Amino acid sequence: GDSVTQMEGPVTLSEEAFLTINCTYTATGYPSLFWYVQYPGEGLQLLLKATKADDKGSNKGFEATYRKETTSFHLEKGSVQVSDSAVYFCALSDGAGGTSYGKLTFGQGTILTVHP
Amino acid sequence: ETGVTQTPRHLVMGMTNKKSLKCEQHLGHNAMYWYKQSAKKPLELMFVYNFKEQTENNSVPSRFSPECPNSSHLFLHLHTLQPEDSALYLCASSQDRGSTDTQYFGPGTRLTVL
User: Which of B99, B101, B103, B110 is the best residue to mutate to test the A interface, defined by the most A CB atoms within 10 Å of its own CB?
Assistant: First the structure.
């Protein structure tokens, strides 16, 4: 079945450092890929998404590029802030015919802590 | 403000109690979802409703009973739960069930089963 694997955390960075959180996936169809963020005590918020190969999603300084050849969707940010401290989830929703069609399959989440 | 609200935000119940979780979306969406978020486990999809019809039951025990009276409201009825059911229960909605549709999440109900 479909699956998403994220780099293990927690990740601890100093403010203004460069961030990469790796995400790779396995899917039977042609999935859409998502990054969600969960701040303490809150639900998940969509951070960015990409719906086809080579698409780049971006939002709030975060970027991720859909790489079909490496089945990856790594999250990057050039300069993190303390307010970026949260849990980040990579997820996929498979295309028609895929086992995750119309539903999200999540990675295990990566905790990010940014210190001043 | 995501447009998806959940009540209560926190719930403590004994194993013999019956309680219900409520979710309401103000986005005009057609699909609604229940997820379970446990510590150290990926989010687990429990149920999916599309146009008020249940389209997915992800092998959830019968002690969890969903109800979707209309496209804006989703309930999760709980009875005779176990301590391992303690978790954050998240509701989400999306315009439709297509693979490109973004799911919008509520803040969750933190459930503790004693």
Answer: B99
Q: Is B76 helix (H, G, I), strand (E, B) or coil?
A: strand
Q: Is the CB of residue B18 less than 8 Å from the CB of residue B37?
A: no
Q: Return the structure tokens found at B39.
A: 């510590």
Neighbour order of strands in the sheet with A19-21? A19-21, A75-77, A62-65, A56-59
- Phi (first) and psi of residue B83, to 5 degrees: -55, -30
Residue B38, classed as helix, strand or coil, is coil
Backbone angles phi, psi at A56, to 5 degrees: -115, 125
What DSSP string describes A4-54? EEE--S-EEEETT--EEE-EEEE-SS--EEEEEEE-TTS-EEEEEEE-STT
What is the mean pLDDT of each successive set of 10 residues along chain A, which is 116 residues long? 88 97 90 94 92 95 96 97 96 72 86 96
Distance between CA atoms of B43 and B36, rounded to whole angstroms?
6
For A73, half-sphere exposure in the C-beta direction (CA atoms, 13 angstrom radius) is 32
B-chain residue closest to A108, CA distance: B42
- Taking the C-alpha atoms of residue A91 and residue A109, their distance in angstroms, rounded to an integer, is 10
Asked if B56 lies within 8 A of A103 by C-beta distance, the reply is yes
